[in-house]
Amino acid sequence: MNPIERIQSDRAQARRLDDPNADLCFLALADSAGHASVRTLVLREISEKCITLFINKTSPKWHIIDQGGDAELLIWYPSAQHQYRIRGTLTEIAANTIATNWQRRPVGSKYLDHVYEELGAQSSFIESREDLTNKLTDLRSSIASDELSVPPSATGVSLNYSSIDMLDLNKEDRIHDRQLFTRTGNSWQSNVMIP
Ligand SMILES: Cc1cc2nc3c(=O)[nH]c(=O)nc-3n(C[C@H](O)[C@H](O)[C@H](O)COP(=O)(O)O)c2cc1C
Q1: pLDDT at 156
Q2: Whose alpha carbon is nearest atom 4 of ligand 1?
């Protein structure tokens, strides 16, 4: 079984069934001191080669990724009752791919990417929410939404698979099916695990 085809098929079904997790994933990172952090991200593309995510370079998560921190990405589709824990290396994607995708972002998210450039880094502290809304009002009045350009801190990363731990809860008597898929070159090897 190819685990990527299975995730793609689960995602298509999740979208048809309005599963709120259809386009989401949860990215856990460990920094060089071993401190863990986890956050929800929009899951962009799932291809045979990698999973693509879009983030901002001013954020704490980018600094961990840039320093080669350990990563695991979790996908849970309630509609399929399948969990996937995906390990691999995170690398920055090409500038032209970032530019094309950034233009498709919701308008509010585009302005927020400019806030990170002009007001402060993502996840940094500010005096009040008003500082943020005032900055957004300034930006909206000085640059029309269709003239916004990709800020240098907007980026994307691809997770290049090394292994996928798949847990299927659909079996009888709660005896779940669990398999570890390991990638070697372009092929996958699977090993059954105790769930
Ligand atoms: C449904 C949902 C989708 C999100 N999608 C993204 C995303 O695609 N990119 C992103 O940088 N943050 C996204 N966030 C916000 C992150 O979870 C997180 O709060 C933010 O990126 C700051 O994380 P950091 O301080 O660990 O860098 C999303 C949050 C939610 C609840």
Answers
A1: 97
A2: 41
Question: Which residues line the pocket of ligand 1, CB cutoff 6 A?
Answer: 24, 37, 39-42, 54-56, 59-61, 122-123
Average pLDDT over residues 116-139: 98
The model scores a pTM over 0.90: yes
The Å distance, Cα 179 to ligand 1 centre, comes to: 29
* pLDDT recorded at residue 1: 82
Q: Whose CA is nearest to atom 20 of ligand 1?
A: 39
pLDDT at 51 over 90: yes
Q: Domains in the chain and their CATH numbers?
A: 3-104+153-193 (2.30.110.10)
How many whole angstroms from 171 Cα to the centroid of ligand 1? Answer: 33
Residue 73 tokens, joined: 């990405």
Q: Report the mean per-residue pLDDT for the chain.
A: 97
